[in-house]
């Protein structure tokens, strides 16, 4: 993916180190039995939820972040006491070899779209074009009023030059498409589209310049699948109602982003849409908060991980009740014969 050292560290390694530190610190409290509220018949007893391993967990890595997307769920699965089978992405061969080497070292040791109003160009540009757009929660498209479409384009263009310079291809902070198959897939999405900026490509190096599409039809091919590349379509809508309807007519996304200085509007979008996660007035950042679960809903995935949520995802929550052999007088309430007095209690 041609990531620079600082980018690789911040995108891949930092999250793993943070996940590991958090899990080591919090695991005793996560694994502790969770006391639950008791009723009259069990008030003298011990009732709790205990966590036990699911058994064997399969972790399948992805090539866009081939290290962190293997190691974070692996940490949670091991913390929960599971045996883990790891299948790194075959596309990222070097990272797969590194993961295999690291796991061998551990043998024998016990021990995780839309912005209706007022888009913020720097935050959107960073999240969309980081890792050459190959981020599962990168903004897939922008929804905005027709009156501000040209301003949105100009702001993002200026930000791209600020981030990557005049020659983006030579920037150490801009990557490449993972292989030629995905390169050609993304090129196919550009067919028939109005390119407002970018569009330059080089098949030999799998390079696609940051690209902005305008006046995009909701029925076009580029809107029918996850882009997973540096192509940003802009679809115009004339109201928040129309934006919400647009989102809800599609499969539930992994992430949703809304930009507004009105908290009431933000809360409305949250209440009237569904997504795996969401961030208001920024993109991607909900995924870096260890106390928040990271995962999808419906079409975008099931379950969640990160921090405690990794431990819970890879554990079976076992209902446990240990009865007290005394206080048999309370048990008489459930024994026959029945009576009106017992029912009233």
TrEMBL record:
Q: How does it sit in the membrane?
A: Single-pass membrane protein
Cite the EC number.
Answer: 1.2.1.3, 1.2.1.94
Q: Per the database record, which ranges form the Aldehyde dehydrogenase domain?
A: 42-104, 123-317
Q: Name one GO cellular component term.
A: endoplasmic reticulum membrane
**GO molecular function annotations of the record:** 3-chloroallyl aldehyde dehydrogenase activity; farnesal dehydrogenase (NAD+) activity
Q: Where in the cell is it found?
A: Endoplasmic reticulum membrane; Microsome membrane
Q: Which GO terms describe its biological process?
A: aldehyde metabolic process; fatty acid metabolic process
Q: Which Pfam families match?
A: Aldedh
Recorded hits in Gene3D superfamilies, A to Z, give: Aldehyde Dehydrogenase, Chain A, domain 1 (3.40.605.10), Aldehyde Dehydrogenase, Chain A, domain 2 (3.40.309.10)
Catalytic reactions of this protein: tetradecanal + NAD(+) + H2O = tetradecanoate + NADH + 2 H(+); a fatty aldehyde + NAD(+) + H2O = a fatty acid + NADH + 2 H(+); heptanal + NAD(+) + H2O = heptanoate + NADH + 2 H(+); (2E,6E)-farnesal + NAD(+) + H2O = (2E,6E)-farnesoate + NADH + 2 H(+)
| PROSITE patterns given in the database record | ALDEHYDE_DEHYDR_CYS (PS00070)
Q: What keywords does the record list, in alphabetical order?
A: Endoplasmic reticulum, Fatty acid metabolism, Lipid metabolism, Membrane, Microsome, Oxidoreductase, Transmembrane, Transmembrane helix
- Of which family is this protein a member? Belongs to the aldehyde dehydrogenase family.
Give the multimer and partner information.
Answer: Homodimer.
What is the name listed in the Swiss-Prot or TrEMBL entry for this protein?
Aldehyde dehydrogenase family 3 member A2
């Amino acid at each position: 993916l041609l990531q620079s050292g600082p980018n690789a560290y911040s995108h891949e390694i930092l999250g793993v180190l943070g996940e590991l530190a958090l899990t080591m610190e919090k695991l005793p409290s996560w694994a502790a039995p969770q006391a639950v509220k008791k009723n009259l018949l069990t008030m003298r007893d011990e009732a709790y939820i205990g966590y036990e391993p699911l058994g064997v967990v399969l972790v399948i890595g992805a090539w866009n972040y081939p290290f962190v997307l293997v190691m974070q769920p692996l940490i949670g699965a091991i913390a929960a006491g599971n045996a883990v089978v790891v299948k790194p992405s075959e596309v990222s061969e070097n990272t797969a070899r590194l993961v295999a080497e690291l796991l061998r070292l551990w043998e024998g040791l016990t021990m995780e779209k839309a912005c209706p109003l007022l888009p913020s160009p720097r935050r959107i540009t960073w999240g969309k074009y980081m890792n050459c757009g190959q981020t599962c929660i990168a903004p897939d498209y922008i929804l905005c009023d027709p009156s501000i479409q040209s301003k949105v384009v100009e702001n993002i263009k200026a930000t791209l030059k600020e981030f990557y310079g005049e020659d983006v291809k030579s920037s150490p902070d801009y990557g490449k498409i993972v292989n030629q198959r995905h390169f050609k897939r993304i090129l196919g999405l550009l067919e028939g589209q109005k390119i407002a900026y970018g569009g330059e490509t080089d098949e030999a190096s799998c390079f696609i310049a940051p690209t902005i599409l305008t006046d995009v039809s909701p029925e076009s091919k580029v809107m029918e699948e996850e882009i997973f590349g540096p192509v940003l379509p802009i679809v115009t809508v004339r109201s928040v109602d129309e934006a919400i309807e647009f989102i809800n007519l599609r499969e539930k996304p992994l992430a949703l982003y809304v930009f507004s200085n009105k908290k009431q509007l933000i809360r409305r979008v949250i209440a009237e849409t569904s997504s795996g996660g969401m961030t208001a007035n920024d993109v991607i950042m909900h995924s870096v908060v260890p106390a928040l679960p990271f995962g999808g809903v419906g079409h975008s995935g099931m379950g969640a991980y990160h921090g405690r949520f990794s431990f819970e995802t890879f554990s079976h929550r076992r209902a446990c009740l240990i009865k007290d052999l005394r206080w048999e007088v309370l048990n008489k309430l459930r024994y026959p014969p029945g009576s009106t007095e017992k029912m009233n209690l």
